[in-house]
Specification:
By secondary structure, this protein is an alpha+beta fold. It is built from 4 helices and 9 strands.
């Protein structure tokens, strides 16, 4: 039984045996090609991994793909020219020019000069009290003055324009104040209505060397103290007592 089975198996194997479809060389070539494809795939996979790592590093260092661009250079800002003044005061000629008109003025004396430069209208009062220091009296005499325009400079200093009530002859001729600018009553009222808070006034000292010295006007003694004949806009004499200065008395 054993011999017969062995013989049958051999016959069956011989019948089922088929010659190989590929030669040995073709089989080896196919194996080589398969190895090359595997290497290529591995190389591609490695490149992909390297690229992914590089991207991760770039993101971590750069803070993201949307990197902030440097700010654009600011355009060069050209300083705007100073505003044209609404009025100009020429201390040398003793003239205030505004809206095509020239108004005669009197200003500060040599001892109490009027500050120059650009000033701005801060406020206005129909009537205010000028102290002895403002007026230029050596004693404590106050004077009521109508149509007062308060001025302020960029450094914080202040001055004012008002009606000259105690020496109208000084207007356009000589200087008679403690540093403020005096006008005729009609001119002061017109200017008061012409200028509003925020208006710009340039005060210049051109020709100041040729200014006429301030004489001692009638009604003021040798010390510069108002006498009984010195009158104010209310028709009375200069009022005695310590004043509070411009801006302290309502109009």
């Amino acid at each position: 039984m054993s011999d017969e089975l062995t013989s049958d198996l051999r016959e069956l194997a011989a019948e089922g045996e088929r010659p190989p479809t590929l030669t040995g060389a073709e089989i080896r070539g196919r194996a080589v090609r398969r190895r090359r494809r595997r290497r290529t795939a591995l190389a591609a996979a490695g490149a992909s991994v390297a690229g992914a790592l590089a991207l991760v590093v770039a993101l971590s260092l750069g803070g993201g793909t949307d990197r902030e661009l440097p700010p654009a250079a600011s355009p060069t800002v050209t300083a705007s020219p100073p505003a044209t003044p609404d009025a100009t005061v020429d201390l040398g000629r003793r003239v205030l020019s505004v809206a095509g008109r020239q108004l005669p003025i009197t200003a500060g004396t040599v001892k109490t000069p009027t500050p120059t430069g650009r000033m701005t209208v801060l406020a206005k009062k129909a009537v205010d009290v000028l102290t002895a220091r403002d007026v230029g009296f050596s004693d404590k005499y106050d004077v009521k003055a109508p149509w007062v325009i308060q001025l302020g400079a960029s450094d914080g200093s202040e001055n004012f324009i008002a009606t000259m009530t105690y020496d109208e002859k000084a207007l356009g001729n000589y200087d008679r104040t403690g540093g403020w600018i005096g006008l005729r009553q009609a001119d002061a009222k017109w200017l008061y209505e012409q200028l509003s808070p925020g208006a710009v006034i340039d005060i210049e000292a051109s020709g100041a060397a040729d200014r006429t010295p301030s004489p001692t006007p009638t009604g003021v003694d040798g010390r510069g103290v108002a006498t009984a004949g010195s009158t104010g806009m209310d028709g009375g004499a200069a009022t005695a007592g310590t004043g509070t200065g411009p801006g302290t008395s309502g109009g």
